Amino acid sequence: MAIATDQTHCARCGAVLMPGAAYCDHCGERTHRAKRLVRAALRVEVLFVGLMFVLVFGFAMIYYFQ
After folding, report:
1. Where do the H-state alpha helices sit in 1-66?
2. Rounded to whole angstroms, how far apart are CA atoms 5 and 15?
């Protein structure tokens, strides 16, 4: 298991990053931390939409078969 550490330099331009930065102040590139947070947010949204679809489909089937 990898240990998470703060990224100290920008992967694109090499500029020094502030601790906990989400974006590079010099070029605007997202840090590794920001990219992980975006991926996690997308997973939550996809899961939520999927659950809403199942819920609506389930109620529609209950209504249809009554």
Report:
1. 32-64
2. 17
pLDDT, tens digit, for every residue of 5-60?
778 999 899 999 998 899 999 999 999 989 988 899 999 999 999 999 999 999 99
CA–CA dist 30, 57 (Å, integer): 38
User: What CA–CA distance (Å, rounded) separates 7 from 14?
Assistant: 11
**R_g over Cα of the chain:** 20
The pTM assigned to this predicted structure is 0.61
Cα–Cα dist 36/38, whole Å? 5
